[in-house]
Amino acid sequence: MNPRLRAVVQLLVLLGVTGLLLLLFPRAFAFAEMAARELRYLWWLILLVALAVWLIWGAGRRGRKN
To answer: Where in the sequence is the domain holding 43, given as residue range(s)?
Structure first.
């Protein structure tokens, strides 16, 4: 599997898991909807997404050797 295909698969899995979690937890969906309407909540949503991206892609790379 080449790196580009792997990145696309990871992105699709991330989007799928996010969608599934929003369906399973309606309060999270309500928070995301409120964040889209009010800027002060949007920053928290952006920070949470950035943390998730860092944990998925950034934290695992530190210990690997190329």
So the answer is: 3-60
* Number of domains within the chain: 1
Residue 66 carries which DSSP code? -
What is the Cα–Cα distance from 13 to 21, expressed in whole angstroms?
12
Q: Residue 32: what pLDDT?
A: 76
**What average pLDDT does the segment 3-15 reach?**
89
Tell me, yes or no, if the pTM score tops 0.70. Answer: no
8 is a domain residue: yes
CA distance 3 to 25: 32
Who's near 22: CB < 8 A, 6+ residues apart? Answer: 28, 29, 32
CA angle (36 as vertex; 31, 41 as ends), nearest 5: 60
